[in-house]
Design goal:
Structural class: alpha/beta
Largest sheet: 5 strands, parallel
Number of domains: 3
Length: 587
C-alpha cells in the first residue's frame, strides 16, 4: 500500500517518503531519503574527514565496548566478529538504528528497524564498493519510562489483543510513586520475570511451539541480567548471523568520549535549544514539531539513581554579562551546582550525565561513524528539527532512512477477507480501526444508503431556502446555517443508533470482523506498533523470525510502501528439523 494512502502517517512523514523534492520537507534535511549517489558521497567524505581526525583510541574504545557486551551474552558469531573487525578500521562507516529496550523486543517495528539497518548496510556496500558499512543497533538504555518498555501485546486464542506486563518490585510496592530511574540498567528480578512469563503463557494460544518459545525467551531474560542487556541478547539471537552489532553507550568509558559534546552544551546553553526552536518555528508553518527542547538538554543521574533534568537558575542567565558564575539545580530537588562544579563532575564522572531526546542523536553520532540512521515515523519528525543541531555540534547530518513498515496477514484472516470480498487495504484505510464504513458494507441492509439519501435531500431542501431567507431578512442567514447543522447532526446521530441496532442482528459477522480488526489493527493502531513477535513465534515456530527475514529482505529498501506480508499454508516451514503444518510466503 502507498504510505500516502494510510491515515496512520503524518503529512510530514508522507512528504518525506513520497514527495521529498516537491514539498517543503526538503528544507529540513541534508539529503533525500532516496540517497542520490553524489549527495551521499559528500556525506561519506565529510564523515571520513571527521573520523580520521579523531584519536585512534576513540574507535578502539567504541569497538572494545561493543565486543565486551556481545561477549558477555555468549560466543560471537562469525558475522559479528567480521563486523567488529571492520568497525575497528578508521574508514568503515555505520548504518545505525535504535530503540528503547522494550521487553521481548517491544512491538514488531523493532524487528523491522533492525532488518532495515542490516539490509541498508548491504545495499550501501554494493552502491559504494570502495567502502564498507556495518549495521549497529543503539539501545536507548537511559530513558526512565519504565511503563513504555515493560509490556508486550499478543493475540489470545480468541483473537483479542492481550497485554502482559513485567512489573518490577519497586513499582508494585509503590504504585503511586513517580519513576525517575533509568529503565535499561534495571536488573530483572526472579519473581516478577517469572510472573511475566506465566502471564505470557496464559495470554498466548497453546500450540506445539509454546514451551520451546517460552524457554528461549527465558534463556535470554534471566534474573540478574539488566533489561537492556536482555534486549541486546534478543537482538543478537535474531540478527547475530547478519552481523548486527549492539551498543549500550551508558558507561563511563563511552560517556568519557562524549565529554566535549556535553561540555559544549552546558557552557553554551541555551544556544542549541534556541537554534532548534527557530528551525521548529519554520517547520510548523507546514508540518508539526515533534520535540520541545529544554534550555539544557542533559539529565543528571543522582547517587540514588534518579535521572533528573538539569535546570539553570533564571537569574543565572544574566550572570554571564555580570561576571558572576552561573548556577544550576536538579529539577524537583534542592541539589545545586555552580558552573565550575558541574563541569568538574563532568570531567571526573561523565556517566552522571544523560542525554535527552535532542542530545541523544548527537551523542550517538559523535561516538559512531554514522552515515545513515534508520528511523521510524516519529524519529523522522524529530530529525526534521535537528539539522541545525548537527551544524552546532560540528557533525555531518546522516541520511535518515525510513524503516521498513508492514502488516502480517495470516491465512485465517485471508479467509475472512475472501468471505466478505474485501481486501486488507480496505481494512487499513480508516484511522484507528473504526472501519464503520467497511462494517456497514458488510451487513446486508439498505439502511446506510437510505439514510445517506435522506440526509442529502434534507441538506438540499434547507439550502434551497437560503435565498428566500436572505431576501426576508439577511440576518437570518447565519441562523439557517446553524439550523441546518443541528438538523443534519441529529439525523446522523439517529443513523448511527439505527445502524448500531442493525449491527446487533449480525453478531456473527461482527465477531469475525472484530477478529480481523484485532489482528490487523490491534487497539486501533497499525499491527507493527502493537503486536510483539512472540505471537507469531508461538503460532508458526521458534524460527519464524528467520522466515520473516527472508520475506522482508527483498522489500526492505522500499520505504514508499506499507507492505502486506501474506502467510499462506501451501508449503512446509522447517524449524530446526521440525516440520510445521504452516507456511509463509510473500505476495
Amino acid at each position: 500500500m502507498d504510505i500516502t494512502s494510510l491515515p496512520y502517517f503524518t503529512p510530514l512523514v508522507k512528504d518525506y517518503t513520497a514527495r521529498y523534492d516537491s514539498s517543503a520537507i526538503r528544507n529540513f534535511f541534508s539529503i533525500s531519503p532516496e540517497a542520490p549517489h553524489e549527495s551521499l558521497r559528500e556525506i561519506i567524505d565529510a564523515r571520513l574527514v571527521r573520523e580520521r581526525a579523531l584519536p585512534s583510541e576513540h574507535r578502539k574504545t567504541v569497538v572494545r565496548t561493543i565486543r565486551s557486551l556481545h561477549s558477555s551474552l555468549g560466543q560471537l558469531t562469525a558475522a559479528e566478529e567480521k563486523s567488529l573487525e571492520c568497525l575497528s578500521k578508521p574508514d568503515i562507516l555505520a548504518v545505525v538504528t535504535g530503540q528503547q529496550a522494550g521487553i521481548l523486543g517491544g512491538p514488531l517495528y523493532t524487528f523491522y528497524k533492525a532488518i532495515t539497518a542490516v539490509e541498508a548496510a548491504r545495499s550501501l556496500s554494493e552502491q559504494f564498493p570502495q567502502f564498507s558499512f556495518v549495521p549497529v543497533f543503539w539501545i536507548e538504555t537511559e530513558d526512565h519510562d519504565i511503563e513504555e518498555i515493560s509490556s508486550v501485546t499478543v493475540l489470545s486464542a480468541e483473537g483479542e489483543p492481550m497485554m502482559v506486563r513485567y512489573l518490577p518490585s519497586a513499582l508494585s510496592g509503590n504504585p503511586g510513586e513517580q519513576w525517575h530511574k533509568q529503565a535499561g540498567p534495571l536488573p530483572l528480578e526472579d519473581g516478577p520475570i517469572q510472573q511475566f512469563f506465566s502471564g505470557l503463557q496464559l495470554a498466548l494460544p497453546q500450540t506445539e511451539f509454546t514451551a520451546e518459545v517460552l524457554q528461549t525467551f527465558q534463556q535470554l531474560y534471566v534474573p540478574g541480567r539488566s533489561i537492556a542487556h536482555a534486549f541486546a541478547a534478543l537482538l543478537i539471537h535474531y540478527f547475530g548471523n547478519d552481523g548486527l552489532l549492539v551498543i549500550d553507550a551508558n558507561s563511563h568509558e563511552l560517556k568519557s568520549l562524549g565529554k566535549e559534546l556535553f561540555r559544549k552544551e552546558i557552557e553554551a546553553s541555551p544556544q542549541l535549544s534556541d537554534q532548534i526552536i527557530l528551525a521548529s518555528e519554520k517547520l510548523e508553518s507546514d508540518y508539526h514539531a515533534q520535540v520541545k527542547p529544554r534550555a539544557l538538554n542533559l539529565f543528571y543521574i543522582t547517587e540514588e539513581g534518579d535521572r533528573l533534568p538539569i535546570v539553570e537558575r533564571e537569574q543565572s542567565l544574566h550572570n554571564k554579562n555580570e561576571g558572576t558564575e552561573r548556577s544550576f539545580f536538579l529539577q524537583g530537588t534542592r541539589k545545586t551546582f555552580t558552573l565550575s562544579q558541574l563541569l568538574e563532575t563532568l570531567e571526573t564522572a561523565p556517566e552522571r550525565f544523560s542525554p535527552n531526546v535532542v542530545m541523544r542523536p548527537l551523542y550517538q553520532d559523535s561516538l559512531l561513524p554514522t552515515i545513515a540512521y534508520v528511523a521510524g515515523p516519529g524519529e523522522i519528525a524529530y530529525f526534521a528539527q535537528f539539522k541545525p543541531a548537527y551544524e552546532w555540534a560540528g557533525l555531518p547530518m546522516p541520511l535518515i532512512r525510513p524503516r521498513f513498515t508492514a502488516t502480517i496477514i495470516e491465512e485465517r484472516l485471508e479467509r475472512i477477507l475472501k468471505k466478505f470480498r474485501i481486501t486488507a487495504e480496505d481494512v487499513l484505510s480508516e484511522a484507528h480501526g473504526r472501519n464503520i464504513a467497511l462494517f456497514d458494507a458488510m451487513i446486508e441492509s439498505d439502511l446506510a444508503p437510505k439514510f445517506a439519501s435522506a440526509i442529502e435531500a434534507t441538506d438540499g431542501t434547507l439550502e434551497s431556502l437560503r435565498e428566500i431567507v436572505r431576501h426576508a431578512d439577511p440576518t437570518l442567514d447565519g441562523a439557517l446555517t446553524s439550523l441546518k447543522g443541528k438538523v443534519l447532526t441529529a439525523m446522523r446521530d439517529f443513523e448511527h443508533k439505527t445502524l448500531s441496532a442493525e449491527r446487533k442482528r449480525h453478531a456473527s459477522t461482527k465477531a469475525q470482523l472484530d477478529k480481523l480488526l484485532a489482528a490487523l489493527l490491534p487497539s486501533g493502531e497499525l499491527q507493527e506498533r502493537e503486536l510483539n513477535l512472540a505471537y507469531f513465534l508461538n503460532k508458526y515456530g521458534p524460527n519464524f523470525y528467520e522466515t520473516l527475514k527472508t520475506l522482508i529482505q527483498p522489500l526492505a529498501m522500499d520505504f514508499h510502501e506499507h507492505h502486506l506480508i501474506h502467510l499462506l499454508q501451501q508449503q512446509a516451514v522447517f524449524n530446526d528439523g521440525m516440520e510445521s503444518k504452516r507456511t509463509s510466503a510473500a505476495t
